[in-house]
């Protein structure tokens, strides 16, 4: 029997105004609080300096390895042997992004996109071969789908190709914006089979000839993440490294459905972090002889922000319940991604506004949230593309061109 404690255990999240965390069983809430302390004590001190430099601190891998937070969604892998609930997984994404979106994305690419692709798309032998080391973070994963000339149209317009020659596949093409790819041990590469024109998944191991990842420079957002542009030139991949349960883009869509929900939780994390920074600043910053939190216009911005956060919490909690119940569909994650990221944009704008001129100083943290929100708004399906997915569901008419 699972037990729940009403109200916060410790270290209450300021922005959880309706105590949504109390919906977790006590065992999972303890994991969440462990993650909160880890992000606050171990990760946050590394963030601003490396964000400013645009550098990924490799010690993060060791820190996450020691934290035991990887592998939680996958039964039998990681320290939490029963699979963690989707609600806990979502709250962990929120918690990490509340500290920094780049660090959350590094972890999400590894623990979500890469591991979930193998867990969902691989057979039992492949799961047993790759996932234990990934759950221990002895091996790091990446996920390569987006291409230099293809984003929203990647389902039907994927240019990277795979040609089978005996027991080996030869990959050719290019990928772009691939997080972790400059140092990942396993990169899940998606390519179109030239024989049947279907998309298939391949695990390309570090050091494979013809696989050339180059770090993308001069990013405005997600500056800690090492995104790469990858060139694939006659890259040989054994049939044993082809994900055996992926036979078309329909199978890939199953993976994207779950990861899109994770991005919505990240957006809630950005809102939460920005709001909490603004609230603390409003309590401390004085103008006209009193804290600015006592002015009506500032309170209006804070309350509107809290309303967006609370509405997004409600949507995402129910989304996690649909996932756990097995009745989760594309339009569910698409509506969440489109709605929550739009509300996120509002909140980070209002939060930066409360800081006034100080809102452009990295010393106050808020510029990171303001900039990183733009990346989250765009990836895993733009608002427009997710709107069309939901629109098709509710009208029965496809508006895709």
UniProtKB/TrEMBL annotation:
<dbReference type="InterPro" id="IPR006091">
    <property type="entry name" value="Acyl-CoA_Oxase/DH_mid-dom"/>
</dbReference>
<comment type="similarity">
    <text>Belongs to the acyl-CoA dehydrogenase family.</text>
</comment>
<dbReference type="InterPro" id="IPR046373">
    <property type="entry name" value="Acyl-CoA_Oxase/DH_mid-dom_sf"/>
</dbReference>
<dbReference type="InterPro" id="IPR045008">
    <property type="entry name" value="ACX4-like"/>
</dbReference>
<dbReference type="Pfam" id="PF00441">
    <property type="entry name" value="Acyl-CoA_dh_1"/>
</dbReference>
<dbReference type="GO" id="GO:0050660">
    <property type="term" value="F:flavin adenine dinucleotide binding"/>
</dbReference>
<protein>
    <submittedName>
        <fullName>Glutaryl-CoA dehydrogenase</fullName>
    </submittedName>
</protein>
<dbReference type="InterPro" id="IPR013786">
    <property type="entry name" value="AcylCoA_DH/ox_N"/>
</dbReference>
<dbReference type="InterPro" id="IPR006089">
    <property type="entry name" value="Acyl-CoA_DH_CS"/>
</dbReference>
<keyword id="KW-0285">Flavoprotein</keyword>
<feature type="domain" description="Acyl-CoA dehydrogenase/oxidase C-terminal">
    <location>
        <begin position="252"/>
        <end position="394"/>
    </location>
</feature>
<dbReference type="InterPro" id="IPR036250">
    <property type="entry name" value="AcylCo_DH-like_C"/>
</dbReference>
<feature type="domain" description="Acyl-CoA dehydrogenase/oxidase N-terminal">
    <location>
        <begin position="26"/>
        <end position="137"/>
    </location>
</feature>
<dbReference type="GO" id="GO:0006635">
    <property type="term" value="P:fatty acid beta-oxidation"/>
</dbReference>
<dbReference type="InterPro" id="IPR037069">
    <property type="entry name" value="AcylCoA_DH/ox_N_sf"/>
</dbReference>
<dbReference type="Pfam" id="PF02770">
    <property type="entry name" value="Acyl-CoA_dh_M"/>
</dbReference>
<keyword id="KW-0560">Oxidoreductase</keyword>
<feature type="domain" description="Acyl-CoA oxidase/dehydrogenase middle">
    <location>
        <begin position="142"/>
        <end position="235"/>
    </location>
</feature>
<dbReference type="InterPro" id="IPR009100">
    <property type="entry name" value="AcylCoA_DH/oxidase_NM_dom_sf"/>
</dbReference>
<dbReference type="Pfam" id="PF02771">
    <property type="entry name" value="Acyl-CoA_dh_N"/>
</dbReference>
<keyword id="KW-0274">FAD</keyword>
<dbReference type="InterPro" id="IPR009075">
    <property type="entry name" value="AcylCo_DH/oxidase_C"/>
</dbReference>
<dbReference type="GO" id="GO:0003995">
    <property type="term" value="F:acyl-CoA dehydrogenase activity"/>
</dbReference>
């Amino acid at each position: 029997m699972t037990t729940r404690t009403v109200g916060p255990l410790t270290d209450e999240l300021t922005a959880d105004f309706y105590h949504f965390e109390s919906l977790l069983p006590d065992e999972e809430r303890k994991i969440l609080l462990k993650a909160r302390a880890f992000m606050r004590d171990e990760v946050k001190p590394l963030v601003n300096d490396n964000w400013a430099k645009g550098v990924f601190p490799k010690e993060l891998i060791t820190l996450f390895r020691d934290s035991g937070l990887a592998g939680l969604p996958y039964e039998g892998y990681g320290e939490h042997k029963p699979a963690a609930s989707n609600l806990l997984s979502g709250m962990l994404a929120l918690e990490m992004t509340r500290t920094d979106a780049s660090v959350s994305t590094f972890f999400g690419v590894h623990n979500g996109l890469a591991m979930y692709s193998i867990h969902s798309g691989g057979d039992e032998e492949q799961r047993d071969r790759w996932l234990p080391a990934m759950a221990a973070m002895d091996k790091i994963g990446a996920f390569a789908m987006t291409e230099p000339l293809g984003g929203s149209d990647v389902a039907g317009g994927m240019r990277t190709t795979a040609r089978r020659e005996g027991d080996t596949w030869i990959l050719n093409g290019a990928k772009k914006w691939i997080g972790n790819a400059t140092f990942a041990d396993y990169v899940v590469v998606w390519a179109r089979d030239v024989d049947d024109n279907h998309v298939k998944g391949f695990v390309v191991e570090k050091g494979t000839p013809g696989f050339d990842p180059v770090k993308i420079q001069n990013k405005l957002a997600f500056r800690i993440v090492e995104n790469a542009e990858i060139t694939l030139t006659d890259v040989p991949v054994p049939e044993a490294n082809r994900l055996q349960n992926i036979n078309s883009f329909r199978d890939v869509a199953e993976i994207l459905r779950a990861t899109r929900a994770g991005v919505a939780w990240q957006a809630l994390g950005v809102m939460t972090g920005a709001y909490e920074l603004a609230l603390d600043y409003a309590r401390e910053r004085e103008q006209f002889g009193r804290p600015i939190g006592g002015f009506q216009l500032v309170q209006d911005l804070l309350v509107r922000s809290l309303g967006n956060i609370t509405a997004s919490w409600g949507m995402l909690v129910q989304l996690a319940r649909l996932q756990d119940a097995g009745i989760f569909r594309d339009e569910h994650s698409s509506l969440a991604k489109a709605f929550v990221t739009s509300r996120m944009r509002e909140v980070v704008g209002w939060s930066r506004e409360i800081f006034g001129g100080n809102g452009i100083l990295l010393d106050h943290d808020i510029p990171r949230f303001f900039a990183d929100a733009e990346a989250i708004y765009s990836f895993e399906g733009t608002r427009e593309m997710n709107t069309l997915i939901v629109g098709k569901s509710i009208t029965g008419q496809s508006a895709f061109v």
